[in-house]
Amino acid sequence: xxxxxxxxxxxxxxxxxxxxxxxxxxxxxxxxxxxxxxxxxxxxxxxxxxxxxxxxxxxxxxxxxxxxxxxxxxxxxxxxxxxxxxxxxx
Length: 90
Fold this sequence. Notes:
Layout: E1 22-23, E2 30-31, E3 36-39, E4 45-47, E5 51-53, E6 59-61, E7 65-75, E8 81-89
């Protein structure tokens, strides 16, 4: 005999809205200070010259200028190197 009452199963109830992540300002675009350049979960892209990363990994423009994207090699804690996209404002 069961000790627990039968609990029904519910499907398709997880309807949270999307987080609107991604690149907001692309390479070559003019930006002003404080503008959001990239919204991301985790540091998939890193901030370079003229940009900074906030607590939730969003990359903002630190000064007025033009957005530039470049590939850099970043060393991980284990010693392995990975290619990362660096976002900078010049």
